[in-house]
Amino acid sequence: MTRKDSPAALYIHIPFCVQKCSYCDFYSLEAWDSSCLQSYVDALTGEIRLRCHEWGERCFASIFFGGGTPSLLNTAQIATILDSIYRYYRVHPQAEITIEANPATLGRQKLRGYCYAGVNRISLGVQSFFDDELLLLGRIHSAQDVYKTFDMLRQAGIDNINLDLIYGLPNQSMGRWLANLRKAIELKPEHISAYLLQLEASTPMGQQVQHKELALPDDELLLQMYHQTRNLLQESNYFQYEISNFALTGRTCQHNIFYWKAYDYLGLGVGAVSKLGGIRRLNQAAIEQYIKKVEQHELPPQTLLESMDEHEQLADAIIMGLRMVEGINRQELYHRFGLDPYSRYEKEIDECINRELLLQDGDMLRLTEKGYFLSNEVFYRFLP
Distances in Å between the alpha carbon of 172 and those of 79, 114, 291, 377? Predict the structure, then answer.
């Protein structure tokens, strides 16, 4: 398969927020107005055009609006961006087109407009069904907003919904976390993501934990939470296909699978990352400079994050691929990189198999039950 025939994904970063969450360290902006937002959308369409010389022959099977809060964009702005993508790029007829949304930023008219523009999947940033936890996280929506928005999504004909949840919050008990999960399951979304809270020291919540104003659950409780998460979701017909992601049959997130399989992806907008072959580049995170450059018909400045040779690309594909329940396929990786992962990492693989962290089944290699809980230890062994 040539590069132009291989699958690719497209990510669009919308950095605007009403209020930054207390745990978030992504690039986002709270101080903005409607003219700034429109100027950014105009710049995005410019970057789409400017990058088509490098990506125009690729066929995108997934388009993902992330943020920030992409659902702050109105229907005309989403339609303008998607129209530009279809004008300059090849998009698969059955492409998955996702927009991340905050429950407090959606209305019926906006949802209808999104659907008309081509959006066919909504990822709803629920995080919790309890108002005290939402307040702690700095979220702008309430639990009631979640129920109201979910009903609107169904009424608008959206039949592919993900609910994002976070566990391991300060002082969170097992009972409270399981109550969150059960409330999510009762809504019957097609997909549920259950992420362990990851805190950077620079975030407001990270500072509170560092100063001992908040206490995180201990490791033993976190492991129990994860184990119960898997059990409860699988009992409810959500099969696990990645460490933190569960779906009804046929409803996996195709965009995330592109990342986990280490395929190429184009990132558009400030702070977005692109991967082409072994090269990863970051659009620099300065919105004024980004808009100005594109207005001058120039590509926004990028920072080279990584330049990987075949051995490093193989290691990256192994680490990312092992996140998936199906694991990695020896022949597929050999076909892509010309290297046999079992020969290259024979010692590391054998050690993990002997410790019951990995299971080999023919050409497939995947994490065991024990390996899920110690996945970072497994991944560390494959770092180049």
Answer: 40, 36, 42, 26
Q: What gap in Å lies between CA 133 and CA 330, rounded to an integer?
A: 43
**Can you say whether the dihedral through the CA atoms of 351, 355, 361, 366 is positive or negative?**
negative
Whole-prediction pTM: 0.93
CA 206 to chain centre: 21
Pair of tokens at residue 321:
């691929």
Say if residue 131 is in the same domain as residue 23.
Answer: yes
* Interior/surface letters 50-69, b for 16+ CB within 10 angstroms, e for the rest: bbbeebeebebbbbbbbbbb
What CATH number is given to the structural domain containing 140?
A: 3.20.20.70
The pLDDT-based confidence of 185 (bands split at 50, 70, 90) is very high
pLDDT of 88-145, one tens digit each? 999 999 999 999 999 989 999 999 999 999 999 999 999 999 999 999 888 888 999 9
Bridge-based pairing of strands 239-242 and 191-196 is unpaired
Percentage with pLDDT > 90 across the chain = 81
**Structural domain contains residue 315:** no
139 vs 80 pLDDT, higher one: 80
Domain that holds residue 179: 3-260
pLDDT above 50 for 49: yes
The DSSP result for 218-264, as a single string, is PHHHHHHHHHHHHHHHHHTT-EEEETTEEESTT---HHHHHHHTT-E
Write down the residue that tokens 């055009």 correspond to. Answer: 49
CA pair distance 70, 124, nearest whole angstrom: 11
Domain end residue (candidates: 232, 260, 288): 260
Amino acid present at 127? Q
In a domain, 278, yes or no: no
Give me 9's structure tokens.
Answer: 């994904």
